[in-house]
Amino acid sequence: MPPETLAFHLGIMAACFIVLRVISWVQVWRYRGGAPPGSDIKREFRFSLIPLTLFYSSLTKLFLLFLLTIWRPTPSAADPNDKWGGELLLDNPIVNAFKVFKDDQIDREWLIRNVLGGMSAGFGLRVVLDIKPIFTSIIILVGWRAKISVTGIISSWVGGDESSGEAWRAYSIP
User: What DSSP string describes 12-36?
Assistant: First the structure.
């Protein structure tokens, strides 16, 4: 297992442990020492379900990355001076803000790997942990931070030069 993947999983496991422990302490304090109402999902929870959930949620991300290797997007030949917009739309700040979504400037692989992968992992953990979505988002962000820390340390050893190390950091899969 690559070190950045191990760091991602360990960061998520540690964050899950801490968040679940804090939530249980708050619930015990809130219910004055009595047993808070628990769901069947919380009673059947095991920490071994977390890596399994991350694995299953990564299958959609890997499938979409596989589809991008088969069907490469074709560049569109749109004329910036179309009759519908003309010169008025070229200087509009709202239109200029959406220029980052053009096909030649967007990195689909990075979006699928990080944004869609994070959303699918967050949804999977939300189902398994049975906690509020804000806590699941915190857990995913802690896992990403652990992965970024490890790739920052290792990137100088992997690529040899700075540009190769930066490319490896951007495309390392957790």
Answer: HHHHHHHHHHHHHHHHHHHTTTSPP
* Residue 167: both structure tokens together: 């490319």
pLDDT of residue 65: 81
pLDDT(17) > 90: yes
| Most confidently modeled range among 54-63, 69-78, 104-113 | 54-63
**Residue tagged 């804090």 (tokens):** 22
88-109 burial code (b ≥16 CB/10 A, e <16) = eeeeeeeeeeeeeeeeeeeeee
- Mapping DSSP onto H, E and C, the string for 73-121 reads CCCCCCCCCCCCCHHHHHCCHHHHHHHHHCCCCCCHHHHHHHHHHHHHH
Residues contacting 102, CB < 8 A, separation 6+? none
Instruction: Report the alpha-carbon distance of residue 135 to residue 14 in Å, rounded.
Output: 13
